[in-house]
Design a protein that fits this description.
single chain; 581 residues; alpha/beta; seven-stranded mixed sheet; six-stranded parallel sheet; globular
């Protein structure tokens, strides 16, 4: 049956049709929907794991036991999962093992533009790269067959555009893939140095065999057309086809590690000029140059950001496609925290305290933006807590009284706990604030171990953040409501003054959760409003100034009351809905 599917949905369908039994992932845009769609199938187990390392190890354990297994992550998540992946390259598999990694050229929702092909090369793990949703499904199924054929994990490389675009997919039935028999084999499955040395030899031989496969496999194909030679893969293939059409000939690579040699040489020999079109780093280009193939690549196409049809057409053909241009400048719309976001009050309180804020990855990263401007650093998940420890060690105890770390509930479970252990073990007077909004908010409301609900919506044990903090040696743990600015100020004052590690849990559910009931919207009494703009300090998108007076958009306001607390003139309060002019 033909269906229109998003790339991530097609990967999930491929898992179903491939007979996968175990799926374990950690949400990360743009990969999140793969596991969400996978969870809609009752034929196999799907779960959210605390982090990508755990997810990869769950999948590895299932594969060694004989089941086809899978985990998904975004590109920076592969950094976290790299530890087990690199060793699984040596061990190999029993049942097929596939990891999907979604890169984010253009950094739509990420802190860097990492190219995951480097991990495939370094780990000596083969990688497939689909160019549309149909290939997402087909390549997922193929990856399992090849994983078991070559005794290796496989990586499936996606990107934001492939993950989130839609195209036609032909669906099929679920394969009946029995569990493979597990046989105790320490020589293969226990990676002590004596065993690992022998398996490195196997890995190198396997890569040679995979390179031979890359020479003749159907997913690496030549499409002859015009006199321009193009070597490309993934979404860049789609861009090139649309930009150049039949004026070019294409070597479309479906396997991007290992890359072929003879196929590339034979294709390039047919053309006077050969272009390598790839986003981010020059992986294919470097391989071609190493083979002595003269190609045009990054001297024409930037390693920064996304490519598109317009760029390719202009660079290669020198043609500019006609397009409609508006005379007016469209104002930028920077991302902001939602109306009623529980993080807003906390960041207002932190800004008021003028403290150093070690930040983390999550919705609350928006606390760095004006007018709150209440975050100093943000590195990666979990780094807020551990880097605060380093900050305080470097600058001393007095600075610790003016510094905090902020981290979300899901991120605390992901990698904040071990960082907090380091604080209690090595003793700095560090204050850590856990922003508990009862959900994994940044990636679209996924459950996590602290919510007490599984990916299927079933009740389960909920990790108590308070008890975890106490168990690892934090004696000062307190919970505050971020809508209560006075309580926030008191908590910050007392914990920053404490001569030992402390944790403040800023707890209120995300305002967008369906089970959250909001208060009636507030309104501004124009007669009382002086136009002082104090209410704008919290950066709420429901508040604006019209005619030198503040107004509140009742269609956005959720009645959180923060602006009411800030108004010294009593101009904000409950009342009739106010029409927005």
């Amino acid at each position: 049956m033909k269906q229109l599917m998003m790339g991530n949905e097609a990967v999930a369908r491929g898992l179903y049709e491939a007979g996968v039994r175990v799926v374990s992932s950690y949400p990360g845009t743009p990969s999140t929907e793969i596991t969400e769609y996978a969870a809609t199938y009752d034929d196999f187990h799907s779960e959210w794991a605390p982090n990508e390392k755990v997810a990869c190890e769950v999948a590895a354990g299932a594969a060694i036991a004989g089941a086809r297994a899978f985990c998904a992550m975004k590109h920076v998540g592969l950094n976290v999962a790299a530890d087990p992946l690199y060793t699984m390259s040596y061990i190999g598999i029993n049942g097929g093992l596939v990891l999907a990694v979604a890169d984010d050229p253009g950094m739509h929702s990420s802190q860097n533009e990492q190219d995951s092909r480097h991990h495939a090369i370094a780990a000596k793990v083969p990688m497939l790269e689909p160019a549309d949703s149909a290939e997402c499904l087909a390549f997922t199924k193929l990856a399992y067959d090849l994983s078991e054929r070559f005794d290796t994990p496989f990586l499936l490389r996606l990107s934001t555009r492939i993950s989130h675009s839609r195209s036609v997919v032909e669906t099929g039935e679920r394969a009946d893939v029995p569990l493979k028999e597990y046989k105790k084999d320490p020589q293969k499955n226990v990676m002590m140095p004596a065993m690992a040395r022998g398996w490195h030899v196997f890995v190198e031989q396997r890569m040679r065999e995979l390179a031979d496969y890359a020479e003749q496999c159907e997913i690496n194909r030549v499409e002859m057309g015009g006199p321009i030679g193009v070597i490309t893969a993934g979404n860049c293939y789609a861009y090139a086809r649309e930009a150049l059409g039949e004026r070019a000939s294409y070597l479309k690579l479906g396997m991007v590690n290992p890359l072929p040699e003879r196929l590339l040489r034979d294709f390039a020999a047919k053309f006077e000029k050969v272009y390598v079109i790839e986003e981010l780093d020059d992986v294919i280009e470097t391989h071609c140059r190493r083979l002595g193939i003269p190609v045009i690549g990054k001297e024409m196409f930037s390693p920064i950001g996304e490519l598109n049809q317009r760029i390719i057409r202009e660079k290669i053909l020198g043609e500019t496609a006609p397009f409609v241009q508006l005379d007016e400048e469209i104002p930028v719309r920077p991302p902001v925290m939602c109306c009623g976001c529980p993080h807003r009050g906390l960041f207002y309180a932190l800004k008021k305290k003028k403290v150093f804020v070690s930040g983390d990855i999550g919705c609350y990263t928006l606390g760095s933006a004006a007018p709150l401007s209440a975050m100093d650093t943000c590195i990666c998940m979990g780094a807020s807590v551990s880097s605060l420890h380093g900050h305080n060690l470097a600058l001393g105890e007095e600075e610790a009284r003016h510094s905090v770390a902020v981290i979300g509930d899901s991120t605390f479970i992901h990698s904040g706990i071990t960082s907090l252990i380091n604080i209690t073990y090595n003793r700095t007077n560090s204050t850590v604030i856990v922003l508990d909004n009862s959900i994994t908010g940044m990636t679209g409301h996924q459950q996590n171990p602290s919510t007490g609900i599984t990916i299927k919506g079933d009740p389960t044990a909920a990790v108590s953040i308070e008890k975890v903090c106490e168990a690892i040696g934090v004696r000062r743990v307190r919970v505050v409501d971020p809508y209560d600015l006075k309580a926030l100020d008191e908590a910050l004052t007392e914990e920053l003054a404490a001569a030992e590690p402390s944790v403040i849990i800023s707890r209120r559910p995300c305002a967008l959760l369906k089970n959250v009931k909001h208060k009636p919207p507030l309104r501004v009494d124009a007669d009382k409003c002086t136009g002082c703009k104090a209410c704008l300090a919290i950066g709420c998108p429901a508040i604006s100034v019209r005619g030198k007076k503040s107004v509140i958009d009742h269609t956005q306001c959720v009645g959180c009351g923060l602006c009411e607390d800030l108004c010294r003139f009593g101009a904000i309060g409950k009342g009739e809905k106010e029409a927005v002019k």
